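Subject: Sanity check before I submit

Could someone independently write out the structure tokens for this chain? I want to compare against mine line by line before I put it in a report. The sequence has 321 residues.
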Amino acid sequence: MKTNSKTELGLGLAALGRPEYINIRTNKSIDKSEEAFKQNTFSVLDEAYKLGIRYFDTAPSYGKGEAFLEEWNRKHKHLNVVLGTKWGYTYVANWELGFEGKHEVKEHSLKKLNEQWDVSKAMLPSLKYYQVHSATFESGILENIDVLNQLHKIKKETGVQIGITTSGPNQSNVINFASNIIIENKCLFDTFQVTYNVFEQSAYPVLKELLKDGKKVIVKEALANGRVFQNKNFQHYNRAYLVLNQLAEKYKVGVDAIALRFVIDGLQPNYVLSGASDSIQLKENFKALNFKLTEEELNVLKSINVASTTYWDERSDLPWD
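---
Independent answer below. Compare away.
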């Protein structure tokens, strides 16, 4: 029996559409050919839909993730799915294993917006959320009038909700700025996809305000790129691992389900994304909907957070594998 919750589980395709990603629990023995990844992605998408998941989140920089999702959706013609994608990053690793350098290149220009929108709009009418990928002050996106006006035009012409995704220690500042951008007397941004988990909790106050104001909040990286799982390389999390493992044993689920449930019960966003790379992981993640944490347990989990700068410095050192 599922617990009553305002939060739905969604599926993010970051680890499904490309052969290498930032995740310290990657299975290195899998077939990393494009065809194998496509078959696996379709299998995971089918399983997700069977489980009741209806929100699917992707991006052009997720390798073939956007193309896989669009093809899967076109094949099945589900009328009740909600798709979200992003613009602003380009995948440049070209499926080269062990690619040296950045796998994705960021560009928040009007040219890039138009280029990627021309492809992404093929997912209409199932496409409901169109998001700026990793909005930052440094990229200039939040003050680029031409880009903001074009996003507003897309919103008016198609009805899609326009959003941003954020990363880094100043997520809250970016969100506050973006939520106050007004065009034609209306807020431009409707959705906010943010990193929030047991270790990185700094955005909590601003996220609760967004939810109070009726904005949609989508939580990504709820498993901290795999850092919630006990790992000898992260011994400074030993107390956190003890807490997570004790709760996992109590509720007869994996640590992943505890981490996801922390987000569901503690924040109550609209969506929390599973980043599962196969159907087994997805079904384990889905167990997060089968129980509810107590207030005391939530408070203990809130106490294992770390400084935001520490979290992001650590994340930046994680390898692509």
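---
OP: Matches mine. For the report I'm noting this point. The chain is about 40% helix and 15% strand.
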